[in-house]
Amino acid sequence: MQQHSEKQHSANWQVFETADEVAAASRDLMMQAAQHAIKENGAFKIVLAGGTTPENVYRLLAKEPCEWQYWHFYLGDERCLPEDHAERNSQMALQTLLSKIEIPEENIHFIPAEKGAQQAAKEYSNIVKSALPFDMVLLGMGEDGHTASLFPGHKHNENELVHAVYNAPKPPPERVSLSRKALSQNRHLLILVTGESKRHSVSRWKKGENLPVSSIRSLNKMDILLDSKAYPSA
To answer: Is the domain covering 8-227 a CATH 3.40.50.300 domain?
Structure first.
């Protein structure tokens, strides 16, 4: 049950009682966006996020009868680990969603992070450039306010679509991330935040502090879905 909703900076903040309700609402928004994009353009291009909350969404989504052949999946970031490493976002997406649906292999666009951050960023930039604008970008938020692999205090070339990331504060230190510029070129931005550990950063975000997650925009529609534990009471 939705308990609170408000508009702020063109974003629609929605607070639900539980993380499960956030996941269910997210699934519904993704399916609605897909139906609209497929009807309008014959394809649905979505950027997936890593993390526990998105993982729950993917498990729900895998059970739905969707026109999967028209979906195209991209990743917001990836860890520079071997291709089959369990900690890669691609592996999580495969295990929870992509291996459970009928989708052409060419519709899955993973980041080749096993090649190293610089080479992978270069190669993925061409893929991202041809895909823009995305129909939907799904993001989570870390306890420090980071999103994808855009971390507080890190400086990047703002003209890049994909960044090579070094010295990440969370292991592994080497990563690849879509840039603020690329992530903001979307028709629908969906940000999911759950858990009490996120509350402090959500409070900072709502006060207007400059966090990586607060720098992402949308060309059209922006929904921020939180559970009651993540939402500051005052």
So the answer is: no
